[in-house]
Automatic annotation (TrEMBL):
This is RNA polymerase sigma factor. It comes from the Bacteria. It comes from Paeniglutamicibacter gangotriensis Lz1y. Belongs to the sigma-70 factor family. ECF subfamily. GO terms for biological process: DNA-templated transcription initiation. GO terms for molecular function: DNA binding; sigma factor activity. NCBIfam families: sigma70-ECF.
């Protein structure tokens, strides 16, 4: 019986590797940026910049996962904010009032607004973007254990903010009398 010889498959080209990373990450990166930037066209611009960096990393032979690409987006976002201090304060203020996705429950929106930026981002990455502690650890550049501890603290802060909001409003949802 003759054995059929198969030729080894050639390694995927840089273009194929980039296309795979782009397909796997683009929507997640865009949503991550769009929720934090107003107007939305700036999120499109930064998403493009993320994939310029991804392209150079793919050319260098890197194998990129979604959390690593989101970490690139996070760093670019921070750099953009640093470049224009006045614009960053304005964007942060607008982001609190016009978060994407919209938070329809006013108590939840107020609870999130009462949190520190890092706590709010951690809760949004966990519950809006559905990242695991391990993935968030890559994004933040820390250990999964540290993320789990921070997430626990963020949940406690959020619960305290919600409780504070409900006691100020009273049992029927109306503002309590002073």
């Amino acid at each position: 019986m003759d054995e059929v010889k198969t030729l080894p498959r050639p390694a995927p080209s840089a273009e194929e590797r980039f296309a795979a990373v782009h397909t796997a990450c683009h929507d997640t990166v865009y949503r991550y940026l769009a929720r934090r930037i107003i107007p939305a066209h700036l999120a499109e611009d930064l998403t493009g910049e993320v994939f310029v960096i991804v392209w150079s990393k793919v050319l260098d032979g890197a194998h990129l996962e979604v959390p690593y690409v989101v970490a690139i987006a996070r760093n670019l976002l921070r750099n953009a904010y640093r470049a224009s201090a006045k614009a960053s304060r304005l964007r942060a203020a607008l982001a609190l009032t016009q978060q994407r996705p919209a938070i329809h429950d006013p108590e939840v929106a107020l609870g999130l607004a009462a949190l520190k930026e890092a706590e709010r981002e951690l809760l949004l990455l966990t519950y809006w973007d559905s990242f695991t502690s391990e993935e968030i650890a890559v994004i933040f550049g820390t250990s999964p254990g540290a993320i789990r501890v921070r997430l626990h603290r963020a949940r406690k802060s959020f619960a305290a903010a919600l409780e504070s909001e409900s006691t100020q409003r009273g049992p029927l949802g109306k503002a309590a009398r002073p």
